[in-house]
Design brief:
This protein has 570 residues and is mostly beta strands. It contains 5 helices and 29 strands. It has 2 domains: 187 residues, Ferric Hydroxamate Uptake Protein, Chain A, domain 1; 381 residues, no CATH class. The longest helix has 15 residues.
């Protein structure tokens, strides 16, 4: 039985055909398969049918066919390569490029973000900056600040093939230490004729109250004479995630005075710090709401004027928009102000009080837009039966936060000064099923007034943003000579990569403290209080905030718009 590129062909030697695998397959039945029906060898018609039967193909499709094609590529490759290919157009096995790559030997993934999305890869211990990622053999621009591509920005629904080259291939790239990842997209003549593929799904999170959609559409068509083809696809993906967390931000180390282990400590006694230990720098609770929206699109035009010439023009576009809203409270601790300190065996403060503790309510609006566009031209010419010439040119540009997008806007309000409280902090159990608790919270320790808007005043405002662009021009040409078992390749490539960074922050000019102090209710001359009631848009309840965990939290945190808050102050 002859085997070629995943197709099983009936042999013409007269040997019995091997049993066919039990996988999805399309098969053209033969006259030989109709054994038991009388045959008249003298008739030309039956003879013609028998000859036709012996030459018909049984074509294996589906996952088994995909795996067979991958093995064929590995066998014929001159280097070490692993491949994942689509079962058919629009049928890639995974929903994320990095999630697919992790199934290959020697490849592990890196996760980030509130959902833990796979965003990068490590190949044989080399991280993303040591790997090169290509689109159809071309470098792709990335405005994230390094060489590593964020795979969460790559729509996977209509990818044709993923190749991970673990040994150098100078015809593609010679600058990667770890591996070269080549993401290949479909073209019209990969599947001649008319093709239509669509995908749709929805997802819902436990705490969400709505279903968010994902949908894609691909249309591909070639002319009847197979001279011209066009393919277009678009994918829309959205993910909404709500995350609750109780946090301790940092455990700095330092020295305590022995008197800090008691309720009272004079200035003279506090100067003798002889007990080493650790303490929580900040404690709080936060709800994070994330909307992750991505649009991917591709158009490919192919012109095939002769059997020897193929011209391809394509454009790939992607835009990912992440909107994140955070609402939280936080209390800040200073080691020298702690009293009634209880240290565990490791010197960690697990119980203490602090007088005059201020309380801050924060809101943050974070936005990140990552946009990439690549246009390419490829010309392939079979000059002779042995010589193939290929030229390729591409222009790509990526933007991080294009236009006037401000990446992060933060507002901090609260009370302190003479409304500060003698707060108690306690670690009441193992962190696997308990979080720390605070008590005696609220203005001057009055927990019933925890969220009393009449005493809340302005504090700090922090704005930060980053604007990056990455512009890439590249050209490649090569010639390949094949004759029998001999293959000769020659070529060259040129690329120019221009990267621009621009960072802005209110920390730079100290403007972030322009309205700090909480205002008159806290006994301060700086800050504005009370704040207008329409700035407050509701609250997030902290009751049963982390289901299944023990610990005590204040009643709620405020929902307010940091942009409206800053506009009011200015």
């Amino acid at each position: 039985m002859a085997q070629d590129q995943g197709n099983l062909q009936n042999s013409t030697t007269g040997q019995p055909a091997a049993p066919q695998p039990a996988v999805p397959a399309t098969a053209k039945t033969t006259s030989a398969a109709e054994a038991g029906r009388p045959q008249d060898a003298a008739t030309a018609q039956d003879e013609s049918q028998g000859n036709t039967a012996q030459n018909d193909d049984i074509v294996v499709v589906g996952l088994r066919g995909s795996l067979q094609r991958n093995l064929d590529i590995k066998r014929t490759s001159s280097g070490v390569v692993d491949v994942i290919s689509a079962e058919d157009i629009g049928k890639f096995p995974d929903s994320n490029v990095a999630a697919s790559l992790q199934r290959l030997p020697g490849v592990s993934i890196q996760r980030s973000g509130s959902r833990g999305e796979p965003t990068g890869i490590t190949v044989r211990g080399f991280g993303g900056d040591f790997n090169t990622t290509l689109y159809d053999g071309r470098r792709i621009s990335t405005a994230t600040g390094g060489r590593q591509i964020d795979f969460s920005t790559v729509g996977v629904d209509f990818i044709g093939q993923l190749s991970v080259l673990k040994t150098p291939d100078v015809s593609l790239s010679a600058s990667s230490i770890g591996a070269t990842v080549n993401i290949q997209f479909p073209n019209p003549f990969d599947h001649p004729g008319f093709r239509l593929a669509a995908t749709a799904s929805g997802s819902i999170q436990d705490r969400a109250d709505k279903i968010v959609p994902t949908a894609g559409l691909l249309i591909s068509s070639t002319t009847a004479d197979d001279r011209f083809g066009i393919l277009a696809d678009v994918i829309y993906t959205r993910r909404d995630t709500d995350t609750n967390r109780v946090y301790v931000s940092g455990w700095p180390g330092g020295n305590y005075a022995p008197c800090q282990l008691t309720a009272n400590c004079t200035a003279a006694q506090a100067g003798s710090k002889t007990i080493a230990g650790w303490f929580p720098q900040q404690y709080g609770a936060e709800q994070q709401r994330v909307e992750d929206e991505r649009v991917d699109a591709r158009i490919s035009l192919q012109y095939h004027p002769t059997d020897a010439l193929m011209v391809t023009i394509d454009n790939n576009f992607s835009r990912q928009t992440i909107d994140q809203n955070n609402y939280a409270f936080g209390v800040w601790f200073n080691q020298g102000d702690l009293r009634n300190v209880t240290l565990d065996a490791n010197g960690t403060a697990v119980d203490f009080t602090q007088a005059g503790t201020p309380t801050d309510f924060t809101a943050a609006l974070n936005k990140q837009v990552l946009q990439t566009n690549q246009t390419g031209l490829n010309v392939k010419f079979d000059a002779t039966d042995n010589l193939t010439l290929e030229g390729d040119a591409a222009y790509a540009k990526s933007w991080l936060n294009p236009g006037d997008i401000i990446g992060s806007r933060n507002g901090d309000i609260g009370y302190g000064g003479n409304l500060g409280n003698t707060l108690r902090f306690q670690v009441g159990g193992n962190s696997k099923d308990a979080f720390p608790s605070i008590s005696n919270f609220g203005p001057a320790g009055d927990s019933a007034r925890w969220a009393d808007q009449s005493v809340i005043g302005s504090h700090v405002t922090v704005n930060q943003t980053q604007h990056n662009t990455d512009e890439l021009m590249q050209f490649r040409g090569n010639a390949t000579w094949k004759q029998d078992n001999l293959t000769l390749k020659a070529g060259g490539q040129y690329y120019q990569d221009t990267f621009n960074f621009r960072n802005q922050s209110t920390f730079t000019n100290n403007f972030w403290q322009a309205y700090a102090g909480y205002g008159a209710p806290s006994g301060r001359t700086s800050g504005i209080s009370p704040l207008p009631g329409d700035l407050f848009q509701g609250n997030v309840s902290l009751n049963n905030f982390i289901p299944g965990f023990n610990g005590s939290l204040p009643p709620s945190v405020f929902i307010f718009d940091p942009v409206a808050y800053q506009n009011y102050l200015t």
